[in-house]
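Batch job 17 of 40 flagged for manual review because the log was empty.
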Amino acid sequence: MELDRFDRQLLNLVQEDAAQTAERLAERVNLSPSAIQRRLRRMREEGVIVRESAIIDPKQVGRPTFFIVSLQVERERPELLAQLRKWLAAQDHVQQVFYVTGEADFVLVITAPDTETYDALMSRMVGENPNVRRFTTNVALTVVKRGLTIPVPLDVDA
């Protein structure tokens, strides 16, 4: 899909706050509210905007701890990796999963209300996924920045 400067501006603005009205976005992008709605609908239909969600304060809902996990597998056979990916994707506590290069095969971001909940999740993971060789855990002491924003350059050539 071709994205022009207006589309790129909109993408940056809705990543900042997806709850902005078409009228507010129109003021900032210098288009009509109906043009804003058409462009956003097209970007949703084309899969540029995958979904919209609310960012909540984890402390307000009892999930104050973040765990960053490096995970190694025994074998990188496609069917075994697919099984592990599917298992990880189905876990509510697992926020992000990255298949990476380097010493680890996966890096996970997990949130849980306490270490006991985290430990139970990881025990289940190892028990239900025999291809997991080992994992190491880092506990986030402070969250300095958290987000999923993708900076969208306004210039098409950038």
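Reviewer: the log was empty due to a logging misconfiguration, but the result itself is present. The two ends are 16 Å apart (CA to CA). Unflagging and moving on to job 18.
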